[in-house]
Amino acid sequence: MNNTIFTGAATAIVTPMHTDGSINYEEFGRMIDFQIENSIDAIVVCGTTGEASTMTDEEHIEAIRFTVERAAKRVPIIAGTGSNDTGYAIELSKEAEKVGADALLQVTPYYNKTSQRGLAKHFLAIADSVNVPIVLYNVPTRTGMGISIDCYKECAVHKNIVATKEASGNMSLMMQIAAYTDLDIYSGNDDEVLPALAIGGKGVISVTSNLMPKEKHDEVMLFLEGKREEALAIQKKILSFEKALFMDVNPIPAKEALNIMGFDAGECRLPLYRMTDAQIAALRAEMDALGLVGKIK
Predict the structure, then answer these.
(1) What pLDDT, in 10s, does the model give residues 35-49?
(2) Which residues are known catalytic residues?
(3) Half-sphere exposure (Cβ direction) of 27: Cα atoms closer than 13 Å
C-alpha cells in the first residue's frame, strides 16, 4: 500500500488579495495559522480555490514557498502544479518540490484535453520528474475531461502516484478506484465526504474548511472512529451552507464568506467577479445561522 499523505480534511485554501490584486501575504499567514490551529490535517495551496490559473510563475512558486514555511511542518502542504502543458507542469512540479512541498496535486489537462492514453502519459511523465507523492485530480466539470478507471489503473502502478481527489460526482467510478487500485481516495466535493469514506476513502479536500476546518476534520474523524451518526449530524448541519459556497463560481463565494467572517480575503482576480448583493445576502444568512458572521476578530 502506498504511503498516505494525510487522513482527515485538507483545505483547498484561498489566496487573499490586496485591492490592487497582489497577494496579501500577511493575511495569508493569518489564514494558514487559523487552519492549523483548528485541526486541519493538510493544506492545498495554488489549487482551483487558490486562483492558481491567474498567477504568474513567480507568484505561484512564492505562494507555495510561503505556505511551506508558514506551516513549518505542522501539516503536509500539497501544491497544485497541474497544467494542460506537460512540460510546464513538470517545470512547476520541480520548483514546488525544491521549495519544500510535501506532495503535488495534478489536474487533468483542460482545453486541449487529450485521450485517456495521452492522459496516462501526461501524469506518468510528471511523476517521473519528481520525488514527492502525487494526488491526481479528477474534476471534469472544470476541465472538460475525466479520468477513466483504466487510466487510473495504469497510473496507480507508479510509486509516486498515491492518491486521487475525486470531484467527478461519479460514485461508481470511486468504487472502482477503491476496488481495482491502491490509491488513497479523497472526496473533492464537500457533500460527498461520507460516501467516499464508506468505501474506504481517507478524507476530503475541502472548500468549506476555509471557514470551518474543525467541523470538516471532525466529520471525517468521527466517521472513521465508527461514530457515524455524529459525523452525519455535522454534514446535515452545514450542508445548506456548503451548497451556498457554490452558488457562484468557486472561489467567489468562499472569498466573500471569508470577508464576512472577518478575514481580509479581498476579491478574486478577473475574469472571476463579485457576486450580486442578493447572493451576498443569501450567503450571509447561511453564515449567520452557523454563527460565522464576524467570528474572526
Answers:
(1) 999 999 999 999 999
(2) 137, 165
(3) 20
